[in-house]
């Protein structure tokens, strides 16, 4: 006999992309119960990221359709698998796209936040448990937050501190934390920093630079509407290369007595900016961190070896932040008002109006973060 408390499939609404570049369709989907190590979450908030666009337009590594997008979000656990520990029904949680077992060699290392047991899953791992019109729906990474309910491996879930609004916690599940973490574990007080691209990721890098005591923080963007928010987050010098027609590296060197900066954080993913980002740093000791997701499938990076000149070039996933060991420290800074995440939210939509947010608001110059409220 089946126990009446046993979770059953839930019929709900989700935004489904059936074919590449088509508008999202909000329609009924069926979300199965979690397996033994998963949790099923009733979504409260999800936010939009430019990485979602690369999964919508097919420029990511492995485009699969039909798919539910979304990899940033918060919600309340509705049901848990029998092997899940440390989480219970009713917990408000953040949904992440990497895990941390705390036991593997990678988790024990200070060099990476990519767990060997619960890795970054670039494409759906086959456990989505979401169906529509008789077929399984793929997810983005191992998440699908643009749905009223999502099923996620429990190790990719972190409890939300009750002192923090879920709408703000949502913003820590990718973009802002990626930029913040990219600087957090590298920068030394008194250093000079240049951040190229002042969206949520770039502003995260700016804020970390400010908190860590950077002497100069250059914010570079071709959108003058980013100027005021950038300064509010900590930019000391805003530069728009369109106004001068000069290369980014030349502008930065002119502002640093020809030396360049100690660190350059590249957040646009535009291939043509790579050499400029490297050349903006100090010869021999400068470090460039690549964070931005390329807007094109074939990036065609053309690194000029002479520009590298014993400088350091690095990449990162989620800013090197470990979701269980490190993320609570950033949450605490938000609770203490050192970081004002709410300032990043420029637009809010319902799930029914998701196309307005995804296809309209995200293209507006004033847009930083679009949040979906369920």
Key descriptive features of the protein:
374 residues, alpha/beta, 2 domains, seven-stranded mixed beta sheet, six-stranded mixed beta sheet, 12 helices, 19 strands, globular, metal-binding, zinc, 8-hydroxygeraniol oxidoreductase-like, ADH_Zn_CS, oxidoreductase
Secondary structure topology:
Elements: E1 10-17, E2 25-31, E3 38-47, H1 50-56, E4 67-68, E5 73-80, E6 92-95, H2 105-108, E7 130-132, E8 135-136, E9 138-139, E10 149-153, E11 157-159, H3 166-169, H4 175-184, E12 192-196, H5 200-211, E13 216-220, H6 227-233, E14 237-239, H7 241-244, H8 248-254, E15 263-266, H9 274-279, E16 287-290, H10 305-308, E17 312-315, H11 327-335, E18 345-349, H12 354-360, E19 369-373
Helix pairs in contact: 4-5
């Amino acid at each position: 006999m089946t126990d009446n408390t046993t979770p059953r499939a839930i019929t709900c609404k989700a935004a489904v992309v059936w074919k590449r570049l088509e508008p999202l369709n909000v329609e009924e989907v069926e979300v199965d119960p979690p397996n033994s190590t998963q949790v099923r979450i009733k979504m409260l908030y999800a936010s939009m990221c430019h990485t979602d666009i690369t999964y919508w337009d097919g420029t990511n590594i492995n485009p699969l359709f039909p798919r539910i997008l979304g990899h940033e979000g918060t919600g309340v656990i509705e049901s848990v698998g029998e092997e899940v520990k440390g989480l219970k029904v009713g917990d408000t949680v953040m949904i992440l796209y990497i895990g941390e077992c705390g036991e593997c060699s990678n988790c024990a290392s200070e060099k990476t936040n990519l767990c060997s047991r619960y890795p970054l899953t670039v494409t759906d791992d086959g456990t989505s448990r979401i169906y529509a019109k008789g077929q399984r729906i793929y997810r983005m990474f191992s998440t699908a937050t643009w749905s009223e309910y999502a099923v996620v491996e429990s190790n990719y879930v972190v409890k939300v501190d009750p002192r923090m609004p879920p709408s703000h916690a949502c913003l820590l599940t990718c973009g802002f934390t990626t930029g913040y973490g990219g600087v957090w574990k590298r920068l030394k007080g008194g250093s000079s920093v240049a951040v190229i691209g002042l969206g949520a990721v770039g502003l995260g890098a700016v804020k970390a630079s400010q908190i860590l005591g950077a002497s100069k923080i250059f914010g570079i963007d071709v959108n003058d509407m980013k100027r005021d928010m950038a300064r509010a987050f900590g930019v000391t010098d805003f530069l728009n290369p369109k106004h001068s027609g000069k290369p980014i590296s030349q502008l930065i060197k002119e502002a640093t007595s020809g030396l360049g900066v100690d660190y350059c954080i590249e957040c646009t993913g535009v291939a043509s900016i790579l050499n400029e980002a490297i050349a903006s740093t100090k010869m021999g000791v400068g470090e460039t961190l690549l964070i931005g997701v390329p807007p094109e499938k074939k990036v065609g990076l053309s690194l000029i070896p002479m520009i590298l000149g014993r400088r350091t070039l690095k990449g990162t996933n989620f800013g090197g932040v470990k979701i269980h060991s490190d993320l609570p420290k950033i949450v605490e800074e938000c609770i203490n008002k050192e970081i004002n995440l709410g300032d990043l939210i420029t637009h809010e939509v319902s799930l029914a109006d998701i196309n307005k947010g995804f296809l309209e608001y995200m293209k507006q110059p004033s847009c930083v973060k679009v949040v979906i409220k369920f």
